[in-house]
Task: structure prediction
Amino acid sequence: MTEKSPARQATSVIIASLVLWGLVLLAAWFVEGTDTALGHGPLPSALNGLAAYLRTLLVGVIGIVVGGAMIVGVRGSAQYGERYSWLIYVFVVAPLVLLLFIPLERFNVGTFLGLPSFLVGIPGRMVIATSLGALLLGTLGLRVLLKAPPDEGAARALAQRSTGGGAARDAAPGRFTGQAWRALSFMQEEAKRFEQSNMGTEHLLLGVLSDSRSQASRVVMELGADPASIRREIENIVSRRGPLFGGAASMTQRCQRVIERAVRIARNSGLRTVGTGHLLLALVEQPEDVAGQLLDSSGITSDRVASVIRHMPPEGD
Result:
């Protein structure tokens, strides 16, 4: 279960930051130049009708490209440079925010600190502000801004019990094997059994180890632990909490992140589907969670799980 080295992760984020900055500067320069060429007030336009129209179209296209690149850049950094994804905020977000506080250029007055006019003119400022908004949107996601639960789509999918393909499985964050999909469905059943509406990593672990034939259960047995014993221990922990109702059934953010991490693990391994082994490995990698701590105390560590999975055939449907 090899992943990119820290140096490669950091390099990926730095390169992404440079590309984003290059796009922002190029867009600001082009938009400022177009605004000047179109002319203002008594100043004549330097462009004829067709040229002005083409420049207008290019301004729109460049805006779309820059906004899309910002969203792709921040999400790509989080995916391929996990440990150093914060660098994009240092190299891109912070300088963009600072530029927003720099005074705009005034007529017949020199620019602030001699900065290029396309950075302190109104058209360039709008490019910078729009780029920053797109970047932050890529970080937060529409669901957060619309105050919808981050796992709403997945929760609806889990409510539709399915062991095959189809829309229900496709609605979840990635394509799962039949065993993995059943584990996610059992996670919801386990939460209902304990009368708890929030599905956490503890319920996910119960679901992952619910079938002794799953890859996760076989990995646990391969490492000398008993899946049934681990289930009993986690059941004792969950039952002590008692019924917890928080409205409609939904996954906690930690549980959602574990599932998303399992998707990345499978993708980094060159697999098109996510198995229960990937879910187990993602759980083990969360030492701050009760599920991860329980697995670790049973001698099930991320390195050992990754080693066993590497020598197992992919989990079938």
Summary: Residues 142-174 have pLDDT under 50 and may be disordered.
